[in-house]
Q: What sequence folds into this?
């Protein structure tokens, strides 16, 4: 199913061709002047330039071929040669009914479905998630849902950070604190299954150990050795490490669940480990590995690079796999298991060089073709000082605390607005949680991902303006109208477009497909957010201009209920693609 814009583009292109002009110039866009037209085509200007002719005269010719089109109520040439198109109420009625009857609500499928891995979230063992992981999680989850909705087969993978030097650090830190642990013994075990540390222990020890390793070279060397022994398979270290992984993952999943973020795969960096020896041998055989001060590297710099890109460190001088090594082996692993045509890495823009190194190495090694690996970078969430957000104490804000803070704010806002008073305590909590999540997610997805934004919980949580809570409120308001209608025994019926506000609402609904197609092409969920906001606003205007329940005529009432229903369905569909769930009541 195609939208009105594409259908009109086809017709106008044919009219260009029939006038002896380039059909591609017949592309139609939504009108810049909705007061004058629904759609416009500017192609006559370009055609005139190419033919050194008068644009208005060419536009006349094109328009001549369109006069007989029954879908058009009017066709005018404006200014230097813009063609303005206005659709008939009947044509808009047809389109509104079509969207209302469509389970996809007017959104088309991608031309050729692909197999896609979305690597996002990127949580780490023992490190609490912070606001940087929040952006990766929110954007990644939305892209995963969008790609799936467009028909791709998608795997969301957390790419759990469970392998590098941090693991050696933890082993040393835990071992120093509990020197009698059976896990520290050499030999085959058996080792206890129960974890000797809690997540709180790990979160306390890790920053201390990381800080100490920065200055204490002896400590650092011990951690490096522990890392190499772990990766080499020492059974006690492996058993202890598995405890770290378990304890961390359980806590992380709880936080992700709270944000409605669900991974299909929880593969860790460690899962790529078994592939590393073979991979290193292969890189060696292909002549890609170079020895550099005891380490093995792949040179990835290219002639013409604007900046010098350092080589990818594959094996450290201690023999350990590095962050890039596991990323490269993971590409190989995914190739073998899933054979994706596209891998998206939703990770902070500051890791751009890392991904450029890994992607270039992967292409050199023949693990991925051009265009199959994409880093989807994003800016930072900043504090009022314009720098990456910190707590008042100067530390990074833990995701857990952020969610709690947002929930508290949501409860207060609901109460201030006099909302949710008649809800049960449980339903109120559910609504507050949904408002909190909507506020955080919409604040993030409302801007293009490359842009950094300032964390301002009061603004995010407002029920007015371009916010998550505003959209939820609109959704809930429509639900309540539909509920009232049902109580009165009224049902939605066929949509009939007559009022200008109904025309406008139909055009807003029709724009869903373009929003999704472009969001998909640009990996830009903000275009979905934009659409949801415009749709909600247009509905508000319609609701003010076209009374629903008190409309006298039964057909008009049924039609307007039909509008309410299709708007709600599309709004909730768009919100779901952003990872936002709307409550039933507020
Ligand atoms: N764990 C990493 C971090 O916290 C992010 C992982 C991103 N994904 C990847 N394939 N490298 O920075």
A:
């Amino acid at each position: 199913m195609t939208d009105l814009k594409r259908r009109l583009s086809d017709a106008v292109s044919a009219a260009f061709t029939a006038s002896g002009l380039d059909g591609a110039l017949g592309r139609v866009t939504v009108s810049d002047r909705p007061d004058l037209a629904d759609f416009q085509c500017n192609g006559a200007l370009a055609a005139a330039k190419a033919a050194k002719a008068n644009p208005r005269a060419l536009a006349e010719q094109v328009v001549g071929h369109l006069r007989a089109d029954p879908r058009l109520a009017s066709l005018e040439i404006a200014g230097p040669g813009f063609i303005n198109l206005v659709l008939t109420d009947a044509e808009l009625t047809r389109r509104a009914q079509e969207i209302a009857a469509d389970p996809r609500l007017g959104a088309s499928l991608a031309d050729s479905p692909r197999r896609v891995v979305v690597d996002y979230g990127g949580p780490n063992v023992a490190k609490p998630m912070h606001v940087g992981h929040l952006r990766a999680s929110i954007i990644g989850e939305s892209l995963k849902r969008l790609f799936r909705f467009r028909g791709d087969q998608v795997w969301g993978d957390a790419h759990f950070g469970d392998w590098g030097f941090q693991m050696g650090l933890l082993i040393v830190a835990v071992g120093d604190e509990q020197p009698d642990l059976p896990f520290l013994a050499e030999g085959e075990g058996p080792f206890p299954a129960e974890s000797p540390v809690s997540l709180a222990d790990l979160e306390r020890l890790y920053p201390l150990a990381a800080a100490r390793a920065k200055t204490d070279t002896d400590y650092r060397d011990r951690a490096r050795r522990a890392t190499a022994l772990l990766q080499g398979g020492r059974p006690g270290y492996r058993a202890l490490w598995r405890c770290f992984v378990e304890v961390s993952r359980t806590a992380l999943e709880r936080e992700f669940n709270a944000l409605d973020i669900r991974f299909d795969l929880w593969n860790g960096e460690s899962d790529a480990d078994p592939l590393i020896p073979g991979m290193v041998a292969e890189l060696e055989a292909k002549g890609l590995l170079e020895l550099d001060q005891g380490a093995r590297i792949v040179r990835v710099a290219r002639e013409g690079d604007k900046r010098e890109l350092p080589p990818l460190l594959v094996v450290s001088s201690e023999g350990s796999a590095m962050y890039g090594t596991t990323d490269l082996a993971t590409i190989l692993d995914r190739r073998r298991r899933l054979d994706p045509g596209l891998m998206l890495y939703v990770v902070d823009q500051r890791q751009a060089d890392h991904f450029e190194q890994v992607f270039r190495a992967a292409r050199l090694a023949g693990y991925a073709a051009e265009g199959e690996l994409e880093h989807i970078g994003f800016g930072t969430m900043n504090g009022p000082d314009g720098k990456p957000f910190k707590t008042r104490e100067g530390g990074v804000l833990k995701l857990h605390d952020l969610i709690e803070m947002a929930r508290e704010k949501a409860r207060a806002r609901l109460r201030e607005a006099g909302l949710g008073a008649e809800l049960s305590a449980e339903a109120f909590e559910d609504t507050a949680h949904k408002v909190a999540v909507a506020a955080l997610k919409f604040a993030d997805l409302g801007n293009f991902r490359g842009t950094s934004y300032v964390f301002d919980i009061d603004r995010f949580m407002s029920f007015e303006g371009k916010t998550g809570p505003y959209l939820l409120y609109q959704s809930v308001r429509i639900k309540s109208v539909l509920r009232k209608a049902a109580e009165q025994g009224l049902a939605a019926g066929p949509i009939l477009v007559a009022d200008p506000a109904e025309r406008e609402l139909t055009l807003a609904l029709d724009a869903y497909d373009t929003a999704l197609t472009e969001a998909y092409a640009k990996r830009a969920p903000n275009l979905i957010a934009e659409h949801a906001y415009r749709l909600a606003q247009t509905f508000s205007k319609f609701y003010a201009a076209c009374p629903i329940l008190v409309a006298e005529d039964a057909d008009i009432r049924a039609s307007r209920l039909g509008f309410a229903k299709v708007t709600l369905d599309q709004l909730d569909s768009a919100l779901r693609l952003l990872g936002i769930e709307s409550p039933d009541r507020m």
Observations:
- Residues 399-577 form a domain with the Isoleucyl-tRNA Synthetase; Domain 1 fold (CATH 1.10.730.10).
- The CA atoms of residues 78 and 87 lie 17 Å apart.
